[in-house]
Amino acid sequence: MSAARPAPELPEPLAPIVDAHTHLDACGATDAASTTAIVDRAASVGVGRVVTVADDLAAAQWAVRAAHWDDRVYAAVALHPTRANALDDDAKAELERLADDPRVVAVGETGLDYYWPGKLDGCADIETQIDGFRWHIDLAKRVRKPLMIHNREADHDLLTVLLDEGPPDRVIFHCFSSDTNMALSCVAEGYILSFSGTVSFKNAHELREAAKVVPDDQILVETDAPYLTPHPFRGAPNEPYCLPYTVRALAEVRGQDPLELAKITTDNARRVYRL
Ligand SMILES: [Zn+2]
Ligand SMILES: [Zn+2]
């Protein structure tokens, strides 16, 4: 995220939409009032519900609190794959406790990130990430909630570990960024693909091709705010209210009416997250 560019203007409303993956804490929310302010802004353009996602333990505790402050907010809890080296017994016990909370609708974001090891100080190595991913898959099955996956340059190993471990009945690939082959593999397994602002990026030709092959009942939309602000606001801070820009871009790629896609993805979010 960069604050160098001003915040995008409010888009034309498009309702209803669910933001399937965002980080309200990283958007600047700290307490009930600042959380509600962000969700009010989103609701003003039709984004009526959001799933706020944790990447470490403190963020997981915060996400559950936020979901209790405002009934339009739901939480997902996990340790991000790059932080899988913090998954000790205490962290596991706390994540198990949090995942059981009725406001928690998914276990995530977990998965594999093969981009950061060796580049980021303290990043979990690949072996540790795979162990952590296996633990989160099992947790999702135990609490009977969907598994929300972060995948960076790890297509093959992700599918392999999921099949080896046995996936839970609902699996979401957040910010799907892979090619058509990977999309088809995920679709065949019954996984759900969630698209973010990256689908609108000028150079994302392969991703747009992938977005065309996803059936209506396996697609979600998300901001991943404050990151990945959609075109033409790339580099400006993202927030859940920006989601209509992405829905319109995705609808154009798929040859769909934006309102129709909004309804389809909202029905899917309700079904997958049991909202
Ligand atoms: Zn992610
Ligand atoms: Zn995220």
Automatic annotation (TrEMBL):
This is TatD family hydrolase. The keyword Hydrolase applies. Pfam families: TatD_DNase. InterPro entries: DNase_TatD-rel_CS, Metal_Hydrolase, TatD-like, TatD/YcfH-like. A divalent metal cation 2 binds at H150, H174. GO terms for molecular function: DNA nuclease activity; hydrolase activity, acting on ester bonds; metal ion binding. GO terms for cellular component: cytosol. A divalent metal cation 1 binds at H21, H23, E109, D224. It comes from the Bacteria. Keywords: Hydrolase, Metal-binding.
